[in-house]
Specification:
Layout lengths: L13 E5 L15 E6 L2 E6 L2 E7 L5 H5 L4 H12 L16 E5 L2 E7 L16 E6 L2 E5 L7
Antiparallel strand pairs: 1-2, 2-3, 3-8, 4-6, 4-7, 5-6
InterPro entries: Reg_factor_effector_dom_sf, SOUL_heme-bd
Pfam families: SOUL
Family: Belongs to the HEBP family.
Amino acid sequence: MPWFNFRTSSAPTTTTAAPFPKPEFCGKYECPEYETEQLRGYELRTYRPSVWASAKVPSLDMEYWENGDDSIVAYMKLFNYIRGANDRNITVARTVPVVYSHEKDEVWMNFMIPANMSDNPPQPTDTDVQIYRADSDQYYVRYNKKAC
């Protein structure tokens, strides 16, 4: 199963560390927890382990799925899963963000499973939806906060 893989090969010097700051874009929704270290021009995020529901995006044409034509297929499979298309017929709370992951010739859309369900998440009834456990990992981030 593919997962995030956006690392750099060498880290700038660390200046400070901070506990998980819930980003504004999370709003009322749960989102992945991480600790931060402020680096020169970057933020190093150490994400905690998490559980995700994943569905493969049917097309490999990047322009096609980025414009929504094919990503809606994966989105609807995941939406149906959180609306009860699972072995317990229960609703799974929404989380943010919706994450795309890429590996070789595959593109996946991913919804995070809420922490209170992560030990024993409901299993999808759609065979195109898979549950994936992500280990703790680190990512270097630089962004314009106005864009979030």
